[in-house]
Amino acid sequence: MSATPLLDLVVLDCPDALALGRFYAEVLGWELEDDSDADWTTLVPPGGGVTPERRDGRTSLAFQRIEDWVAPTWPGGRHPQQFHLDLAVPDIAAAEPAVLAAGASVHEHQPSENGGFRVYLDPAGHPFCLVRG
C-alpha cells in the first residue's frame, strides 16, 4: 500500500450545490450521487461510484453551499478566481452549444491568441475553459 495520496475530490463552493452539480453533470455526462442536495452534491464519474476504490483512482467533483457566496472575479478584482477547471474537447466550437445550453456563458475576456482554449462562466460564476485536447 502506497502512502502517496490520490486526488479524490475537487470541491467547489457555490450558492446552491444541487443546481451547480446538475450543470456539471449535464456538461460532463456524469451522474449525481443519490443523496445530493442543495447543501452538498457529489458527481459520479462514468463507470464508478464515489469511493476511490469504485472510481479506480479517478478524481470526482463535489459542490458545497456557502451561505455568503460571492462569485469570483476574473481576470482581476476583489474576489480572484483562485482556480478553474479545464475541460478537454476535440473541437471547442462543436462543444460550445451544449455548454451554453446547460447554462454557461461566454466570458468577455478571451486571452487565447491561438484559439487553443475558450473561457466560460458556470451558473455560479466560476470561470472554466474548454480546451482543445
UniProtKB/TrEMBL annotation:
Q: Which domain of life is it from?
A: Bacteria
Q: Under what name is this protein listed? A: VOC family protein
* Transmembrane regions listed in the UniProt entry: none
Q: Organism source for this protein?
A: Phycicoccus sonneratiae
- PROSITE patterns documented for this protein: VOC
Short name of any one Pfam family annotated for the protein: Glyoxalase_6
The VOC domain is annotated at 6-133
Q: InterPro entries given for it?
A: Glyas_Bleomycin-R_OHBP_Dase, Glyoxalase_6, VOC_core
